[in-house]
Amino acid sequence: MNAVVFGAGSLGSLVGGLLAREHDVTLVARADQARAVSESGLQIVGAGEGVADEFPVHSSPSVTTDGTELNADLAVVTVKSFDTAAAAAALSTGSFDAVLSLQNGMGNEATLAARVDAPVLAGTATYGALLREPGVVECTGLGEVVLGARDGGPSTIAERVGQAFAAAGIETTVAEDMPRRLWEKIAVNAGINAVTALTETENGAVLEAPANELARTATRETARVARECGVSLSDRAALAAMEAVAAATAANTSSMAQDLLADRRTEIDAIHGYVVDRAAETGLDVPTVRTLTALIRTWERGRDLR
Ligand code: KPL
Q1: Share of the chain above pLDDT 90, in %
Q2: Which of 45, 66, 115, 267 is deepest in the core (most CB within 10 A)?
Q3: Number of structural domains in the chain
Q4: Spatial distance between the Cα atoms of 138 and 131, rounded to a whole number of angstroms
Q5: Helix (H, G, I), strand (E, B) or coil at 136
């Protein structure tokens, strides 16, 4: 299979580098990352329990800074959610058999499907990744990729993509309930991301008082909105997922906390902001998620990031 990985940040570099062990991969990257990868390849490092045995891995994907007019069996989109529309515009000038979104937040698949003439699959990734420097990505935790049809149900294209990921040594599940899984993921992110970002703490902080109550309330509010949107996600399942992810990634810095620490725009609109918007449409109040959204947006505005 040949694949384009659109967005060579932390997760894109990790997934692209792992896929390149087995497939013909082109990374669409920013200039500094493209320069480093074309000069020295991509180094994937990792330390810690379970991770150290798998790495270092050196892989040599092709790399470009121009995402237009590309052709491949698969495009994997790993850009930040606020860059999805730009990625969709670039991908629409190329040709692909399938597009897979491996991004945070909700709404990315719809944005891609509106522009790109190829079936769009939904996916989630629980691998921990941190771009240490151009050309060097650290795997901070082994996880899995779950992918499938964005509206749920069986998909032969998803099966084919799943086999290609598994052949590259990426732990992969092909699922027929992606809408529920995406809502569960957003409930996890709603609990962990803004709280750890605003308090400059690692993910494990949400397991303890006083952050625990805040994170649990944000997760519960999100699960309620999911149910109102027709997705069967109980409070109990959402809370268990949030706390399991926080425990498994206790020493990791969430993507939103990484963004705040680096003075970068966050994905608040596609995570907490999405929950607030769907709640408003369905007549629900989500005071904790709304407050977290306002705090992060205020921080972004103070730095001219929005
Ligand atoms: O997806 C994540 C993120 O950081 O965005 C979690 C699950 C919180 C892991 O860090």
Answers
A1: 93
A2: 267
A3: 2
A4: 6
A5: strand
Residues 198 and 144 both lie in one domain: no
Catalytic residue selected from 181, 185, 224, 272: 185
Atom of ligand 1 nearest to the CA of 245: 7
Of the pLDDT bands very low, low, confident and very high (cuts 50, 70, 90), residue 79 is very high
Quote the ipTM score: 0.97
**Probe target for ligand 1 pocket from 146, 193, 242, 268, with the most ligand atoms within 8 Å of CB:** 193
**Residue 55 is encoded by which pair of tokens?**
């790495």
Considering the domain architecture, whether residues 120 and 228 belong to the same structural domain is answered as no
The pTM assigned to this predicted structure is 0.95
Whether 9 has a pLDDT exceeding 90, the answer reads yes
Each residue of 236-283: pLDDT tens digit?
A: 999 999 999 999 999 989 999 999 999 999 999 999 999 999 999 999
CA 292 to CA 306: how far, in whole Å? Answer: 16
